[in-house]
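From the pipeline queue, job 12 of 40. The input is one protein chain; the requested action is below.

Action: predict structure.
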Amino acid sequence: MPSASKLARQHWNQTPLFLSEDERYRIYPWLYEAAEFRRHAGHKVLEVGCGTGCDLLQFALHGANAVGIDITEEHLRLARERVAGTAGVQYEVRYGDGREIPFPDGAFDYVYSHGVMHHSDEPKKIATEILRVLKPGGEFNVHVYAKYSAFTLKKFLRHGRKMALHIENSLEPVHIQLYSAGMLRKVFGVPLRITKYECRPFPRTWPWFEFLPSLLGWYLVAKGRKP
């Protein structure tokens, strides 16, 4: 069985996930605020698993010195193309593995990662590295798939034990670990503020929709601080 990192590289090199800014923030309308793109002007920000650079660009547009790392060559190429076309922003896109982040201790004010850790079979290494590269008092913001969600139940009822093949943007296999809040706290070992977002199966027109994501949402957003 290939390692989780090898599966991830194969998956997204073959089927890179490229969305326009309009598409991405229409699909995830909560993400702009949850990611805190506007809060880090003047900060050195690291995105672990920057994908095709959409979120990285938002940090840069709002005045951060934005650095993105990824292990997928095709994502890195697309991220460079996206961000390089924007004048007047500070950014760097380079190869880097979240288990061995290629920067010294205390290099960043803020570390962000959306939809990455749940594809690793060594999440503790990623958490340790995130804390290592943060300055004392620096903050991190990590988004992972929730173990207990309406979307998880829907996929399981439809696909059973093969549900993991029907979550991402193709049927190419990829490692997926679903998380509870308790699992995340154990991985990081520091106090976390955890919120759930996005309840996929329910129409937003339902009057009680606004109360569902906190209970049944598909994403866990964990925010914490380096002591």
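Job complete. The CA atoms of residues 119 and 175 lie 5 Å apart.
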